[in-house]
Amino acid sequence: MLVLLLAPPTLATEPTPATALPLPAMRALADTYARVRQLRPDAPPPEQLLLGAMNGMLRGWADDDSAVWSPEDLARQSAAASKGSRGLGWAIGVRDGHLVVEHLHPRGPAAQAGLRVGDRLIALNGQGPSLGAAQRQAWTDAESLHVTVWRPSAETLLSVRLQAADLPAPTWQLRRSAPGVLHLTPPDWQATAATDLARQLDAAQREAPFRRLVLDLRGHSGGVLSAAADVAAMFLPEGSPVAALQPLAGGAAEPLQGKAPQRSSPAWRTLPLVVRVDESTAAGAELVAAALQDAGRATVVGRPTLGHTRIRTLSALPEGYALSLVTHRWVRPNTERAQRDAGVQPDWPLHSDAELDTWLIVR
Fold first, then answer.
1. Structural domain boundaries of the chain?
2. Fold of 173-310+327-362
3. ∠ at Cα 288 (283, 289), nearest 5°?
4. CA-to-CA distance for 227 and 224, rounded, in angstroms?
5. Per the count of CB atoms within 10 A, which of 34, 41, 209, 277 is most buried?
6. pLDDT tens digit string along 3-28?
7. Is the model's pLDDT at 276 over the cut of 80?
8. Based on C-alpha coordinates, what's the Rg of the chain?
């Protein structure tokens, strides 16, 4: 999933030269709609036709992940993010002209079958997949699907059968390993991610004090931009930059800072921290890892990350529709690293739980 930058609802305002409607083209659009409905009574429903026209407005120049969402699409996304739902536990996107696994529910069928973020879809139910947004949504919502993917990082072809299942609501997962070490596995970055983590850290510290944290971002695909920044801010010195946001339309980069929740203990800003990453760590998860690495606050271990820096702005439209448009990319605080590395490069190349446990003991 791309990082989401939430925008306020769009309000009707006086048109500017940039937003004034080209009336001849608008009349042609209205007439085209009327002629299609007249000449082809078997055409899709009116709402579907117009949604296709709105998405056609983005085709050819905007990022492939930009789209107009219907009220049903938006409700489905919100339900899956907050309350849990039923499905295959994945989202599909387009990257560099290829259909790829963009997001995985950590306990969903797709993740349990061994799929990873960044896997390239070769066939779905034995057929070559289409890049269309509507078809991608149909595959996301499918009850059963046979999937063949190509994993570029391992040059491996993998075929699995997916069956929809109930997906538990996403929450932070905490576990202990070596004495004094607490492992944190986050859900997607949603609005309450930092507040939820602060509460669980307080409870875990009261139960049995810990001296080191391991933030496991392997396979994590991002979420809401402000939530990612707030989680990073819990562990950074106060006032430290998290990233800079570079507009794709040009112009100066905008600094991004997070805000730690009030109940977050100042002790978390100095507690020794390890961040685990791999080739499926993407977007907002990479942003957190990069910010902590550049500030010298964490040792990053694992494998190089995906290198996914695009940000899409979600803007409310009338009647419950929404525009999801890629508008920025994020740049890590250390500009030298940003120019040199495509993703986040680990400080230590560790590959297994056993390697990490040994490393934690000797470090």
1. 86-167, 173-310+327-362
2. 2-enoyl-CoA Hydratase; Chain A, domain 1 (3.90.226)
3. 95
4. 5
5. 277
6. 666 655 555 556 677 778 899 999 99
7. yes
8. 22
Q: List the structure tokens of 292.
A: 């902590």
- Domain 86-167 sits in CATH at 2.30.42.10
Q: Which residue shows structure tokens 């409310």?
A: 316
Q: Which two tokens stand for residue 308?
A: 């996914």
State the SS3 of 284-303: HHHHHHHHHHHCCCCEEEEC
User: Among candidates 349, 341, 277, which has minimal Cα distance to 309?
Assistant: 341
The DSSP annotation for 129-184 comes to: PP--HHHHHHHHT-SEEEEEEEETTTTEEEEEEEE-EEEPPP--EEEE-STTEEEE
For tokens 């507040």, the residue is 195
CB 241 within 8 A of CB 230: no
Q: How do residues 212-246 score in pLDDT, each as one tens digit?
A: 999 999 989 888 999 999 999 999 999 999 999 99
310-316 and 322-331 as β-strands: parallel, antiparallel, unpaired?
A: antiparallel
Give the residue from 98, 90, 63, 137 showing the smallest Cα distance to 313.
63
Contact 101, 151 (CB under 8 A): no
